[in-house]
# Entry
Amino acid sequence: MSLIKKTFFIFILSIISSNLLANNSKVVFIDMDKLLNNSIVGKSVNKTIGSIIEKNKLEKENLEKDIKADDEKISSQKNILNDEEIKKMVDDLNIKIKNYQKIVSEHKKNVQKIKVDSSAIILENLKPILSEYSDKNSISMVLQKKDVIIGKNDLNITEDIIKILDNRLKKIDIE
# Structure
């Protein structure tokens, strides 16, 4: 972030903080990364994503072996076959390589989409939980931990929210 943006962000944050302190408002923070990784639903999503990545890895390795075998076959038959036959084999190999690259790209996009979609579902379920928690505990503002420069540990509500989320949402459908 540029110096101007940082200065502006700190200025706005200090104005908000001073207004909240003047009104005896309570500000807390939550560690979203911890919530997404340590909640039951977050662990379930991470496990599913891990198995998808492992499946993709096996498919990728099989394609790599196939491409390598074809390459070795071309190299071993280079002196035996005529130029036209070699050209056809090389063209076929190039098609396999392009297909491999396309599949790897699709795998990456698919995993990224699953991560984004599952995070959105979790966050959508988290909004009413945070709203209820804020109302119940007279909280004026909830910040993400990554946006907090310094704060007391008793202002961190992550563990409380994880417990509530664990009771309400155990698993989401992925794929």
